[in-house]
Design goal:
Layout lengths: L1 H96 L1 E9 L16 H18 L5 E8 L6 H21 L8 E7 L10 H7 L1 E9 L9 H4 L1
Parallel strand pairs: 2-3
Antiparallel strand pairs: 1-4, 2-4
Length: 237
C-alpha cells in the first residue's frame, strides 16, 4: 500500500514537472517571438523610410534633369537666334557699303519749335521744312526711286533711358508717317530708328542744349554703285 502511494506521488510530481517544463518552453517561445518582432519592426520601418527617401531623391533628380534639358533647349534656341541676328547684321553692313548719303535734314527747335519737352507732334513749320527737303533731294537724285530714307529720333536726357527711347521712336514714326502718307514715299524706302538720349549734339545741362537734342534727323541714302560705260579691253587688263 505504501509502495502504491509512493508510485502515485512520483507520477504526480513527474506530471507537474512536465507541465512546468512545457509551460516554460511555451513562455520562452512566446517571448522570443515577441522580442524578434519588436527588434525587426524598427528595422523594417527604417528600410521603408529609406526607400521612400530614395524615391523622393529620384523624383528630384528626374525634375532636375528635366530642367537641364529645358535650359539646354533654350540655350540652343538663343544660339540660333543670335546666329540669325548676326546674319542680318552682316547683310545690313554689306548693303550700307553700297549706299552713300545724299542729304540730311535735322528738325529741331530751329525749325519752328519742332519738339518741346515730351512733345511728339510735327509742327507746321517742320512739315514745310520736310516738303522743301524732299523737293531738293528728289531734284538732286533725279526722282524718289532708289532712295532710302532713314528717320532717326532723338531726345534730351530728361527722364529714364527707356522712356526716352520710346519717345524718340514715336517722334521718328510720326515723321515717317508724314513721308509715307502725305508725301507718298514708298514705305519700303523708309527705315525708322530710335537713339533715345544716347546721341546728343549739344550740352544737356542747358535748356538751349536740351532743345537741340530734341530732334528728328532724316537722312537720304542712294545706291553708290552707278552704271557707267563699258570699259575697254585694255582698261579691263
Amino acid at each position: 500500500m505504501k509502495g502504491s502511494n509512493f508510485y502515485l506521488t512520483g507520477m504526480r510530481l513527474l506530471a507537474v514537472g512536465s507541465m512546468v517544463l512545457s509551460s516554460g518552453c511555451l513562455a520562452t517561445q512566446d517571448w522570443v517571438q515577441s522580442w524578434t518582432k519588436e527588434q525587426l519592426f524598427p528595422v523594417e520601418k527604417r528600410v521603408s523610410e529609406t526607400e521612400a527617401g530614395l524615391t523622393k531623391v529620384g523624383g528630384r533628380v528626374s525634375g532636375l534633369e528635366g530642367r537641364v534639358d529645358t535650359m539646354a533647349s533654350q540655350i540652343a534656341n538663343l544660339d540660333s537666334r543670335l546666329n540669325q541676328t548676326d546674319a542680318k547684321v552682316d547683310r545690313a553692313v554689306e548693303n550700307l557699303q553700297n549706299l552713300k548719303i545724299e542729304r540730311k535734314l535735322v528738325l529741331d527747335m530751329k525749325q519752328g519749335g519742332f519738339f518741346t519737352s515730351n512733345a511728339t507732334v510735327l509742327s507746321n513749320q517742320a512739315r514745310r521744312e520736310i516738303d522743301s527737303f524732299l523737293s531738293d533731294a528728289a531734284g538732286q537724285a533725279g526722282g524718289m526711286s532708289g532712295l532710302l530714307f532713314v528717320v532717326a529720333g532723338h531726345t534730351d536726357n530728361a527722364g529714364s533711358e527707356k522712356y526716352n527711347y520710346e519717345l524718340a521712336r514715336i517722334r521718328a514714326e510720326n515723321a515717317a508717317t508724314y513721308l509715307a502718307t502725305q508725301k507718298k514715299v514708298d514705305a519700303a524706302q523708309i527705315v525708322v530708328m530710335s537713339y533715345g538720349e544716347s546721341v546728343p549734339v549739344a550740352d544737356n545741362k542747358t535748356e538751349a542744349g536740351r532743345a537741340k537734342n530734341r530732334r528728328v534727323e532724316i537722312l537720304v541714302y542712294r545706291d553708290a554703285i552707278t552704271v557707267g560705260s563699258v570699259p575697254s579691253a585694255s582698261a579691263r587688263r
